[in-house]
């Protein structure tokens, strides 16, 4: 059992293991997102208040979920890297960061577009959008900090510390922004918090969320493989792999 | 005959590390304060920056006192926050350049505590003066009466948190040659809660509602950051020095 | 099916200008991520192979020098 984990935590072992795992997640992501898009766009009923603009929920909410989850995943990876010195964890964190920033951006964009028919403006300082914007800045900070160091190891450790500090702050930021929002804009219409949705509305949402998570796992597995090859390119097993291939 | 020699000795041995930590803390703070006193320009710079930024707003927006009064709490808080941010870059830089930081890392005293001493000095020389100067600028922005005490108190309390959190960013970027802009990028998102509760306290004071909740939350933020940040500062200093 | 015709589906009840860009941006990100992944992999492999070939050539040169 421990031997298995030990092997998995080594870049070489993970490289072999993830090759077998990632196709399943790619397939799941394609099927789930495909089904969710068709269902959400064409078959789910229109909302009685917002009409068809409600369908944006099927991309906005999964993107927002992923934006937050990826930051937490990066912080966990950073913790594992700092405490147990497992390099693989840092490689995974490196691989995830751009996707997380991208998801945050898409959540912001779809929220802003959704705001036009709902609030009548492209940007409203809504609690969710505001904390999503701050999360976006946190992502940029982590990516920029990692790139600013010349030594890869110090860049990795600095990014890990910042991610962990950020993840402690995210709930505080969320709470304070919500508090600030209710203080300044009492009882406005929030786009995503609503009375219980009927099944035919939330089932496609669930499928989309699962699809986005599969996509995240698939991307992370595949991209970590690239990071492994890049960082271990001087190691013997990578050189042998490249030699066989060419 | 029992000789009392053993007990004072063990007493002394038991006491010594604690005493030396306290001594080292005081010595670090004294040294940093002295270094700043010999070069008072650095401390005045952030105060001048604060006043300058506040001057820009009536020029840029409107000299209308009524309009200024409504936005004064936010303006004062944002300008003070930026002034505190600007001074962060120098928090560890000189010590990094002349090797003092390395000595601190090698010293027997726990690094998180020693880092906290530096943060305390930073707050004493920037956060506190900014808070004390804010009422003067408040008058210039025609901040309504009755909110001045809350302004000073919220700034004093909030800027302590700003110094503590900012020290993490300063420690992470101290080894980088062009860390200044990056530092603000790292630190500003983390400053949002402090700004919300700080500016909120002043606004609540103007509105005549209770400010206890705001100040309590500012205190809670300070307490939480005091618990977590020293470890992060110490870890960041190690990364910057060994990298 | 929530729509009567394909035209109605495209019109999205008058909200086409909001729904389609939101979905378009999301799909663009997903596709962009996948394309970037493939490009990154291909470039990496090209580099690794080039390095392997160079090493093999150098090893061959060294052998020849020894034998001559």
From TrEMBL, chain A:
It comes from the Bacteria. It is a multi-pass membrane protein. InterPro entries: Cyt_c_assembly, Cyt_c_biogenesis_CcmC, Cyt_c_biogenesis_CcsA/CcmC. Keywords: Cell inner membrane, Cell membrane, Cytochrome c-type biogenesis, Membrane, Transmembrane, Transmembrane helix, Transport. Its main location: membrane. GO terms for cellular component: plasma membrane. The chain crosses the membrane at residues 21-44, 56-84, 96-117, 129-149, 161-181, 201-221. The keyword Electron transport does not apply. One of its GO terms (molecular function) is heme binding. GO terms for biological process: cytochrome complex assembly. It is found in: Cell inner membrane; Membrane. Pfam families: Cytochrom_C_asm (PF01578). Residues 9-184 form the Cytochrome c assembly protein domain. Belongs to the CcmC/CycZ/HelC family. NCBIfam families: ccmC. Required for the export of heme to the periplasm for the biogenesis of c-type cytochromes. This is Heme exporter protein C. It comes from Halomonas eurihalina. The gene is ccmC.
UniProtKB/TrEMBL annotation, chain B:
Its main location: membrane. The chain crosses the membrane at residues 41-61, 67-88, 119-142, 148-174, 181-206, 212-237. GO terms for molecular function: heme transmembrane transporter activity. The keyword Metal-binding does not apply. The keyword Cell membrane applies. Coiled coil: none annotated. GO terms for cellular component: plasma membrane. Keywords: Cell inner membrane, Cell membrane, Cytochrome c-type biogenesis, Membrane, Transmembrane, Transmembrane helix, Transport. It holds the Pfam family CcmB. InterPro entries: Cyt_c_biogenesis_CcmB, Cyt_c_CcmB_bac. It is a multi-pass membrane protein. It is found in: Cell inner membrane. GO terms for biological process: cytochrome c biosynthetic process; cytochrome complex assembly. Signal peptide: none annotated. Required for the export of heme to the periplasm for the biogenesis of c-type cytochromes. Belongs to the CcmB/CycW/HelB family. This is Heme exporter protein B. It comes from Halomonas eurihalina. The gene is ccmB.
UniProtKB/TrEMBL annotation, chain C:
Its main location: membrane. It is found in: Cell inner membrane. GO terms for biological process: cytochrome c biosynthetic process; cytochrome complex assembly; heme transport. One of its GO terms (cellular component) is plasma membrane. InterPro entries: Haem_export_protD_CcmD, Heme_exporter_D. It comes from the Bacteria. Keywords: Cell inner membrane, Cell membrane, Cytochrome c-type biogenesis, Membrane, Transmembrane, Transmembrane helix, Transport. The keyword Lipid biosynthesis does not apply. The keyword Transmembrane helix applies. Pfam families: CcmD. It is a single-pass membrane protein. The chain crosses the membrane at residues 20-39. Belongs to the CcmD/CycX/HelD family. Required for the export of heme to the periplasm for the biogenesis of c-type cytochromes. This is Heme exporter protein D.
